[in-house]
């Protein structure tokens, strides 16, 4: 039953990642902490997500603008490298609730303000997004929602948004996984969970990619704002 659930959540993770550009780790973290410690769960979720991310990077490789990714990643990665050590000493439940409240507020703001997110953010706002995202990525393996808003504000097409954010996540997966391995958080014992989850993730991503061909950037934005709110509710309740 455990393996079937890993495939199921991997499938849902790939589907959500393919449609919104983020969220695979969020889906996996609903289930994984019930069978693994939270630090390991975050690492396994990130690596399962790699299957979806790599698939999308290859599909949208012609829409990638690498110059838009470098500086955000450096800020994000620097914070994540620091926060990855804090999962054992911070009040994780309180932090999840704070993140949940923030995401719900952002979801409501962007859903009801039609002019929000239509142009690039000031560097101060973008920098705050990067810092918060990196912090929670190091703790839970979840840094996607605010980075999605950042890359969405720079994109003119769905392909441009998906290509850039997935390239960002691919670089991040390599980086944060290396940190977790060196810190002893991830070991070879979790490889079976990763491989089984990837099977579901690849199937879900393939279906999402087919559906995405029929969606414009405006529709994708609405999906993203709704899913950010759903993510926030999850963090508040669980």
UniProtKB/TrEMBL annotation:
GO terms for cellular component: plasma membrane. It comes from the Bacteria. Its main location: membrane. The keyword Disulfide bond does not apply. It is found in: Cell membrane. The chain crosses the membrane at residues 34-57, 69-87, 93-112, 124-153, 165-183, 190-210, 222-237. It is a multi-pass membrane protein. Keywords: Cell membrane, Membrane, Transmembrane, Transmembrane helix, Transport. Belongs to the 4-toluene sulfonate uptake permease (TSUP) (TC 2.A.102) family. This is Probable membrane transporter protein.
């Amino acid at each position: 039953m455990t393996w079937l659930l890993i495939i199921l959540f991997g499938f849902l993770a790939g589907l959500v990642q393919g449609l919104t550009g983020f969220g695979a780790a969020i889906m996996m973290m609903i289930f994984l902490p019930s069978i693994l410690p939270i630090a390991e769960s975050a690492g396994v979720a990130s690596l399962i997500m790699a299957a979806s991310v790599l698939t999308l990077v290859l599909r949208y490789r012609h829409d990638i603008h690498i110059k838009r990714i470098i500086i955000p990643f450096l800020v994000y990665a620097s914070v994540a490298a620091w926060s990855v050590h804090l999962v054992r000493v911070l009040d994780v439940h309180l932090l999840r609730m704070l993140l949940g409240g923030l995401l719900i507020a952002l979801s409501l703001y962007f859903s009801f303000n039609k002019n929000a997110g239509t142009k690039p953010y000031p560097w101060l706002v973008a920098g705050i997004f990067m810092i918060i995202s990196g912090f929670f990525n190091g703790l839970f393996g979840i840094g996607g929602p605010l980075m999605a808003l950042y890359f969405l504000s720079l994109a003119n097409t769905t392909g441009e948004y998906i290509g850039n954010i997935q390239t960002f996540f691919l670089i991040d997966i390599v980086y944060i996984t290396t940190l977790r391995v060196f810190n002893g958080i991830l070991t070879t014992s979790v490889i079976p969970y990763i491989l089984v989850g990837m099977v579901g993730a690849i199937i879900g991503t393939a279906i999402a990619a087919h559906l995405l061909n029929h969606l414009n950037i405006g529709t994708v934005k609405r999906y993203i704002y709704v899913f950010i709110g759903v993510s926030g509710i999850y963090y508040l309740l669980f």
